[in-house]
Specification:
By secondary structure, the chain is an alpha+beta fold. Helix content is 25%, strand content 22%. Strand 3 and strand 4 form a beta hairpin.
Length: 126
């Protein structure tokens, strides 16, 4: 059974930015803890430091900026317009680089990586 790993967020403010969605890849319970941390305004305890090496967290601002969190509450940015996370990220990035859309890129990654799975849910923000 596959689980949803990105969630709409109401009222989350992290680093002074309004967060509209948050999630991640890896361990589901840790992703849920991160989303809760975001909804509470990024207050301590810092859940980002509790993640394993198999978890990445992301938050989408109301301006469309993607914030990536590793082992700190300070977000990092790759500077890339296209990003993918998780065990199938290399496959997804290759597909994105070849010009397919995000949903199809995840479907391609899912067909090539045994730890990437569907169903694929899409999220849009206006």
């Amino acid at each position: 059974m596959r689980h949803k790993k990105i969630f709409n967020v109401v009222g989350g403010i992290v680093c002074g930015k309004n967060i509209v969605a948050a999630g991640g890849c890896g361990e589901l319970d840790t992703i849920h803890s991160f989303v809760s941390w975001v909804e509470k305004g990024g207050e301590y305890p810092n859940i980002c430091r509790e993640r394993s090496d198999q978890c990445w967290f992301v938050a989408l601002t109301d301006c469309g900026e993607l914030m990536t969190f590793e082992r700190t509450e300070i977000p990092v940015s790759s500077g890339r317009h296209l990003q993918a996370y998780g065990s199938g990220s290399q496959f997804a990035m290759g597909a994105l680089g070849a010009g397919v859309g995000a949903k199809q890129a995840v479907e391609i990654a899912s067909s090539l990586d045994p730890h990437t799975g569907g169903p694929v849910h899409t999220f849009t923000h206006d």
